[in-house]
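Quick one: co-fold with glycinamide ribonucleotide.
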Amino acid sequence: MTSRLVVLISGSGSNLAAVISACAGGRLDATVVAVLSNRRAAFGLERARAAGIATDYAPLGAWLRAGGSRESYDADLAQRVAAFGPDLVVLAGWMHILGAAFLDRFAGRVLNLHPALPGAFAGTDAIARALAAFRRGEIDHTGVMVHEVVAEVDAGPVVATAVVPIEEDDDLERLSARVHAAEHRLLVEAIAAVTAGAASNDSNDSSAKESP
Ligand code: GAR
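Sure, here it is.
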């Protein structure tokens, strides 16, 4: 069964574009039913509209200034996402930490993409920090990962990883381009694996129910 994806973004949405294109090209048995952003100017919203996908905008700053709490923002965001009936929620460059008020609503069904390997460079500017570590002689590669989201930042059960070697003449632009290319592939593979796993669990469940 075709899986319904809701994608949360904060920026350019190049990973969103990779997912949309994989759905359109039949490489993913899925459809992006909605894209939500915390930033009105996020280019990913334009990509979504151009593809005819529903969009929503949920700014945290305005919510807090109006007297809302962080927890109530997460609960409201969960409600907005749930309205689209997702099988899987994908954080593709979403730059807010989500707490229990969001995560409990979609237990085990929220994936995050991060431009570093598990346990390394959590948080922002991961690629720049990896390049700095390379220049200090501490590492010779970085990578990307997709993981299930838990309350801890850029941590949680790992779904897929890819290593990206760092080259002597890399600057931030060159390294970022290779990391992003790896992300575009890995995110599609991870969604394919998770949605296929969910589908086979569903069919196992139904056959179990049908057994006497
Ligand atoms: C991606 O590199 C993603 O891994 C990163 O934001 C970028 C979004 O790019 N996410 C994080 O750093 C999360 N901690 P995009 O908007 O072009 O897809």
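If it helps, The radius of gyration is 18 Å.
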